[in-house]
Amino acid sequence: MGSVIACDIILAVFSIYIGIFLKKKSTIYPNMDIGFHIMEVCHNKETWNYGNAFAGNLSIFLGIIFFIIIFPLSLIFKFQRTFYIFFLLFLALCYVLLMFLIVKYKIKKKFNLKKRN
C-alpha cells in the first residue's frame, strides 16, 4: 500500500510542478517550444499567454483536488490495494482529460474561436 501512496504523492507534486512551470516558464509567442500545446492555445499571442497561465492554474487546482483531497479521503474506506491502483489510474486519466477539455472550452469561449471547416 505504501507504493500506491508514494505514487499519489508523486502525482500531486508533479501536477503542482507542471502548473508552476506552465505559468512561469512558457516561451514567448512566436517561439512555442515550451508551453501547453493545443490548437486553441497556439492560435495567437493572446491565447498563448492566457492559455498557458490558465492551464497552469488548472493543473495546480486539479492536482490538489484529485491527488491531495480525493485520493487520501478514499483511503478511509480500506479497499483492496488493486482498487486503489485502478482508482489512482482513473484519477490520473481524469486529470489529463479535464486539463485538455477545460482549457479548450475556456479558450474557445473567452476568445470567441469558431470551429474551422
Kindly describe this structure.
The structure is a single chain. This protein is an all-alpha fold. It contains three helices and no strands. Helix 1 (2-25) packs antiparallel against helix 2 (45-74) and helix 2 (45-74) runs antiparallel to helix 3. The longest helix is centred in the last third of the chain and has 31 residues, at 81-111. The protein starts with a helix and ends in a 6-residue tail after the last helix.
Write the layout of secondary structure elements.
Layout (H helix, E strand, L loop, with lengths): L1 H24 L19 H30 L6 H31 L6
Helix pairs in contact: 1-2, 1-3, 2-3
Question: Quick gist of this model?
Answer:
By secondary structure, this protein is an all-alpha fold.
Mean pLDDT: 92
Estimated share of beta-strand residues: under 5%
Low-confidence stretches: none
Helix count, per DSSP? 3
Distance between the termini: 50 Å
Rg from alpha-carbon coordinates: 16 Å
Specify the overall morphology.
elongated
The helix content is over 70%
Number of strands: 0
Features:
mainly alpha; 3 helices; 117 residues; 0% strand; elongated
